[in-house]
Amino acid sequence: MTQGQLAEAFSAERSTSVPLISSWESTTSPKPPPTARLEQYARFFATVRSAEEGTFRLLTVDELNTAERLAYEELLDQLTTLRPELPGQRGAHLTAAPHSKGLWQFPDSYNIVIVCARLPRDLMHSMGSYTDPNDPDYVDLYTYADPDALIELFGHIRAVNSVSNVRFKTVDQLERDDYTAHLVLLGGVDWNRLTRELLERVDVPVEQITRPTTEEPSGFEVTDEHGPRMYSPTVRGGRLLEDVAHFYRGENPFNVARTVTICNGMYGRGTYGAVRALTDAKFRGRNDDYVRNQLDRHGVYSLLMRVQVVAGQVVTPDWTVAETRLHEWPEAAS
């Protein structure tokens, strides 16, 4: 088939020209395509149905049958492995978990550790016997911050990483080898000190500002070419109407062959919203596609978002809606 026919198929999802494909396939000076484009190649060549009756098109992953899905995943794995990491593209080797299971599926079978904070002692004391290890009614999970986000995420990660050892711990329970696994951090800098330390170590123009008190919302400060800007939650009459949350994915600074993912909000419902964006069955597919097509060019990206709270309940953020996205880094692809 010709490069023009391939461009016809790819353009249904994202504008593609013949010169662009030619630059990827050049035998003298090739330009490696972005990971999202490799995913299109794998999907197209996984099935003869992509070119049936002289019509060139891309099937979705859900449209592939079992044999085609296997071919797709094998092709994607091969193409991703072959793609070189170019100068200035830190973290490119961390991208492209199989698209069918989303961004919470990791590309290998190594350990995954979800890290939460412990509740401050004054809050644990207010909960009575359930948080006292010496009491017969003690329940360890009551001492965790962000239990909603933890329960939601732990089950989902276990489901899509069936051969991996998935564990959850509080920061104070971490052992030396935990730091070099795939790390998933829940909760903000106020209580989760590992979130605070890792955000200081990674190169991202977003800083979470510590809340002076639990009643004062503070916010996330973004510094870019437009100068510093603060994004804060909306609290009226003591009720949280809208939180601000942050999703970050990049290489683990303690082991560059593994990843670190941070889901944090100014309040617990922001953290829960950042998690639900990629676990909620109604939204995870479109949010996953948005990240892969717009942000995941080098395997390192950050998204600051609004999380709506209605009658005390978290509404899952839709990243395809511009008003939901407060800041993206790197800037979304055109």
Automatic annotation (TrEMBL):
This is XRE family transcriptional regulator. It comes from Kutzneria chonburiensis.
